[in-house]
Design brief:
alpha+beta; 530 residues; single chain; 19 helices; 14 strands; 3-stranded antiparallel beta sheet; 9% strand
Amino acid sequence: LWDTDRETLLSKGNEIAGYLARQTFAAGEPDRELISQAVYLFKRYYDSRWGGFGNAPKFPTPHNLLLLMQVSLLENDEKALQMAEHTLRQMYRGGIFDHLGGGFSRYSTDEKWLVPHFEKMLYDNALLVLAYLDAYQITGSPFYRMVAQRTLAYVANELTDEEGGFFSGQDADSDGEEGKFYVFTRQEILQVLGEADGNRLCDWFHVTDKGNFEGKNILNLLHNPRYEETPPEIAELSAKLLAYRRQRTHLHKDDKVLASWNALMIAAFAKAARILGEPAYWEQAKKARRFLQKHMRDEQGNLKLRWREGEAAVDGQLDDYAFYAYALLEMYQVAFETEYLTEAAAVCERMLHHFWDDEHGGFFLYSQETEQLIARPKETYDGAIPSGNAVAADVLMRLAKLTGKAQWQKIADRQLRFLAGDAKDYPAGHAFALLAIAKAVYPSYELVCVTAGEGAPPELLDILARRAVPNLTVLVKTRQNAEKLAKIAPFTANYPLLEQGTAYYLCENGACQVPTGDFAACADKLLRRK
């Protein structure tokens, strides 16, 4: 056609380009019905035997589980929690989790999470840590804490640059063969560990002579009813087999550092520091944030999309800004240091400048200041990771609550209407957007803690770590941070400083109760909410 009818071909090309450039987004009304419809669809497609949703292949999609767990709290929906818990447990039990080295593969090729696509990605592991931490906080089960810790240990050991940035992932192939790095024959394990110890490990991980993957074995706990707690002797034998595996063959590492994926992992380490009380996790989050600040911003403070071998390149896109702001807000909840809240607001200001559509609402994928392609899309549908628009909505809602500034609330409201309009056709495909919408359509609590101490009181940190309280935002005002806090959250200037003790100001949907120094009474009100 190029040779014989070029004019028609060019005309059709222009017609297609024009079609792609025309985007119509009808605003909708954020309401609980959208969330109910999504949960209905999850219940409809839930696999009650193996966990997860639909048929093979199965993807973790942790944001769906995050929504179900949030709904379980907001609606007292035991089925929603049961679906999330069962899925989290079955994913760990299957071969999608690396039972020797920790961390999750991208997805399962079968319905029972046994045979993975062996590639491990940073974003999956970050989002799964967030989900397992939520499950731990809601249920108190140490099993979920263990899985989160093992996943974070994998990232720290295998995907972390010496300066703190996180690499993108590890390939599935070794020596040109998919999964070779991970699988074993039974005889191989007996040779490495000896017959008695080898048989003990094989029994634990259901390793057979026949195998479960091309004549070899993917270690799994699907047949093991004692999967929740690994006996010390099995842990010791697993460590020996892991050391052998590392010498046997190697995996290629994708050593790109991507801003958006790094932000998700910063959020995961920060949340783990807050809920699990591990200082090492907090240091990891802070170190990774310093890496982004040092290596992945230009002189004007704009984010870069990727870094590799000393070079940062490509202007940051919506995901980079939205996810980084999300990470900063997670960091603020750990130590209540105003620098994180201030930087989150600054990142959102740049996000609005580069990507916001003031005419129709929503955020474009790439900046108005970069090369313009034939279309400038707005992505709203969650894929393997939440959409940038959904995370932006969550961040805007949190900023509005934390700062009390009308400008953030106005943009957040428009963003939620934009997302609601796009989500109405298939709400289950917009789980993270629905998490943001839940912040607007369910009752919320705002807590301001004014203390004479230098930081958040231990009793406050303890309750925030141990108990999941949905739609709660917390600010901590001290003599040391009062001036900076008033700049980012002006309403806090009205809360008087104390010479001694602590005062708690608890507000529900903007209506504030009488301040109290009795934290037990304040906590009781939070925990008794419906």
